Amino acid sequence: MQVSIVIGNPNPGGRTTRLAEAAAKHAVETLGASDHATIELIELATVADRLFRWEDEELAALNQSVANSQLIIPACPVYKASYTGLLKAFLDRYGNNGLAGTVALPVMMGAAPHHALAVETHFRPLLIELGATVPTRGLYVLESQMDDLDAVVGSFMETAGPLLARAIGG
């Protein structure tokens, strides 16, 4: 099983990355794929200066790798009540149905509860527009929950895990 984590945070290696990695770990465990999953971490901040070079071979390979994944976990902090431009620029490299055949779990982190619907109202529709199957609601985690990250993601996965498994076919 191939899992791609795509981090749309301009600051690589931060809380958003930890959140997405926890989501991937719990998803893989829930799917019973711990012993045969490959998890690829893509920090878009490391390629940000090249996102608009359409002929970039490394970015084309990253896009293809994500499109070939069974599960993608795109993650970003809430910026201006939506996803980051960094993540949008990467996803804009896909054509219509460019993510068809993938299952996506959108993940967002925010400072306040009033942005919790950003994952549903902005992020989820973008993934669906690109052809991804999004069988669960997205995961929104408050920065203040980071100390309890394992419990928060584990609780979310109790409901989301079976839906992901059904969508992936496991």
UniProtKB/TrEMBL annotation:
GO terms for molecular function: oxidoreductase activity. Residues 1-144 form the NADPH-dependent FMN reductase-like domain. SUPFAM superfamilies: Flavoproteins. It comes from the Bacteria. Keywords: Flavoprotein, FMN, Oxidoreductase. InterPro entries: Flavoprotein-like_sf, FMN_Rdtase-like_dom, NAD(P)H-dep_FMN_reductase. Belongs to the SsuE family. PANTHER family: FMN REDUCTASE (NADPH). This is NADPH-dependent FMN reductase-like domain-containing protein. It comes from Entotheonella factor.
